[in-house]
Amino acid sequence: MLPKFPQTFGELKRSPWGNPDNQARSVKDELRSNLIGKLASGATLFPGVVGYEDTVMPQIVNAVLSRHNFILLGLRGQAKSRILRSLVSLLDDAIPAVFGSELNDNPFAPISKYARNLLKEAGDDTPIAWLDPSSRYVEKLATPDVTVGDIIGDLDPIRAARGGHVLADELTMHYGMLPRANRGIFALNELPDLAGKVQVSLFNIMQEGDVQIKGYPVRLPLDVLLCFTANPEDYTARGKIITPLKDRIGSEIMTHYPETIDIGMEITEHEAWTKRSSAPVRVPEFISELIERIAFEARTDKRIDKKSGVSQRMPITVMENVVSNAERRAIMLGEKEIVPRIADVYAALPAITGKIELEYEGELIGGHVIARELIRRAADATYHDHGIGINTDEIVIWFDEGGALQVTDDAAAQTVVRGFEVIPSLMQVVEDSELAESGDYPVLAGACELVLESLVARRRISRSDAGLYGRAHEEKRRPRFGD
Questions:
Q1: Residue 207, pLDDT score
Q2: What is the mean pLDDT of each run of 10 residues along the chain (483 residues)?
Q3: How many Cα atoms sit within 13 Å of 267 on the Cβ side?
Q4: What does the alpha-carbon distance between residue 284 and residue 444 come to, in Å, rounded to a whole number?
Q5: What pairs with residue 391 in β-bridges?
Q6: Residue 172 in contact with residue 163, Cβ under 8 Å?
Q7: pLDDT score for 211
Q8: pTM to 2 decimal places
Q9: Residue 424 structural domain
Q10: Does any domain span residue 387?
Q11: 224 and 330 together in one domain
Q12: Are residues 217 and 301 in the same domain?
C-alpha cells in the first residue's frame, strides 16, 4: 500500500476519492476521461506503435470515447497485443479497493460477498489497498481447452468444507481471470479459438452481469473493459464465434501491415536489437530497405499463405540475424566496425523460413528456395529504387564470357571489394547509383553484391547457394504431359 493515500475507508470518504462523482466512476469513464486529457494536451496515445496514425488509432480513440468493448481484427504481427497493453497508460495512477478482495472491490460499491461482509463488520476501519495500472490489466490467450472455470471461475469444494459453507455460497467460489480483472482491462487474444460454452459465459457477463457455475446462478456485475483480438477469417467464419457475443462487441477495428517501406523500416529500426557490445554497428540504408522488402515481397507471393500472413516480426528477426552474422565476421577478422552486407542476409534464412506458412505449391518447391527468391526480388527492387536507368550490360557480358566470382560471408570487406574490382564497370554502377562512397569498403562490398543480386533476380547472371556468381543458366523447358 502507498502511505500517501488513505489507508482506511473512513479516511477515504473524507478524501477527494469520497466525492460522489469519483465513487461511481466506471473504468470506461476513467479511460474516456484520461483519453480526453491526452487528446487535449497532444500527448502520445500509444507509444511504440507506428503506421496506424491515420487508420487504426482514430477508430480505437472513437471506441474508447464511446465506452465500447472492442475487437482488433488482423493477421499475426500487426501490433494488436501491443495496442491492448498500451491501454494501461489511460488508467489512473492509483485507485482504492477493499484490502484482501479478489475482485478489486470498489469500497463504495462492493460486489463480492467478502468485501460486503468486511465493510459491514469493520465499517470505517475497513483497510484500503491501492491498485496501480499494471495490476489492473489481465491478458489471456484463448485456446480450445480454456474452460469456464479459467475465465469466469469455479466452485471450490475444499474451500466450502474448510469454511463450513454450502456449495451455493458465493464464498466457496474460486474466481477466474475475468472477475479478477474487475475495475480494469481484460484482454483476450484469439477470441474465435474459445469454446462455445465459454463464449456464452462471456456473453452473459457482458449482457446480464451474471453467469451460472455448475448450475448455481452467480451475480457478477463486473466493471471491466473487454477487448479482444482475432484473425479476420476466423472471426467471420460461422461456428467460430457465437452471434450474440459478436453482436455485443461495440467496435470492430481492422489492423494492417505497414503500408510503405519507410514505415516498415522505422518499425524494424525501433524493435530490432542491433546495439552490440563487441563493436559499433552501422547498417547501410540499402540493407535495411532490402530486409524490409523481403516481408513486402512475401506478402504478395502466391505460394505463401495469405490467411496466415507474414508477420512484421520477420524483418525484425532477419535484421537481428543479419547483424549477428556481420558481428561474427567482425570478431573473427578483428574488424572495429560491424557492417552487414548481402551475404549476411542469406545467412539469415532461418529467420525467414520460420516466419512463412506455405501453400501446397510452395511446399513442393521448399521454404529455403522461396526464401532465396524473396531475397533476390527484394534486392532487385531495392537496387532499381536507387539505380534506375543505369546500364549494366558490361557486367553481364563479363559473366557471359566465362567470368565467375566466389563471395563468402566470412571474407574481409576489402578482400571482397578487390574481387569485385575485376568486374568491368561494376564500381562505376555503384558510384552512379550512389549506394556507397569510394573507400568505404564495408558498404562498397554490400553495394556491389546488391547490383549482382539484381541481375540474378532478372536471370541475367546466376548465383549458387554457396555464393558463386557466374553466367546465367538456360532454363530447361518442362516437357508437356504426353510428350
A1: 77
A2: 76 88 89 96 89 94 96 93 94 94 92 90 93 95 89 74 62 82 94 90 77 68 92 78 88 94 95 92 96 95 89 95 96 94 95 90 89 95 86 93 92 94 94 90 95 94 92 62 45
A3: 26
A4: 10
A5: none
A6: yes
A7: 63
A8: 0.87
A9: 261-471
A10: yes
A11: no
A12: no
Residue 367: helix, strand or coil by DSSP? Answer: helix
| Judgement on whether residues 243 and 318 belong to the same structural domain of the protein | no
pLDDT of residue 164: 62
CA of 300: how far to CAs of 296, 297, 344, 359, 442, in Å?
A: 7, 5, 24, 13, 32
Distance CA 45, CA 340 (A): 35
C-beta contacts of 48-51 below 8 A and 24+ residues apart = 48/82, 48/86, 48/270, 49/79, 49/82, 49/83, 49/86, 50/258, 50/263, 50/266, 50/267, 50/270, 51/258, 51/259, 51/263, 51/264, 51/266, 51/267
Residue 482 lies in a domain: no
Which of 357, 290, 297, 338 shows the shortest CA–CA distance to 318?
290
Three-state DSSP class for residue 482 = coil
Whether 286 and 346 share a structural domain? yes
Distance CA 170, CA 220 (A): 10
At position 401, the amino acid (one-letter code) is: E
Task: Write the DSSP assignment of 242-281 as a string of letters.
Answer: -HHHHHH--EEEE----SSHHHHHHHHHHHS----SSS-B
- Residue 2: what pLDDT? 43
Cβ atoms of 27 and 67 within 8 Å: the answer is no
Instruction: Let me know whether 295 and 224 are in one domain.
Output: no
Question: Residue 185: beta bridge partners?
Answer: 137, 225
Helix H segments across 56-124?
A: 56-65, 80-86, 113-122
Nearest partner of 94 among 22, 175, 180, judged by Cα: 22
Inter-residue contact 461 to 394 (CB < 8 Å) = no
Considering its fold, how many domains does the chain have in total?
A: 2
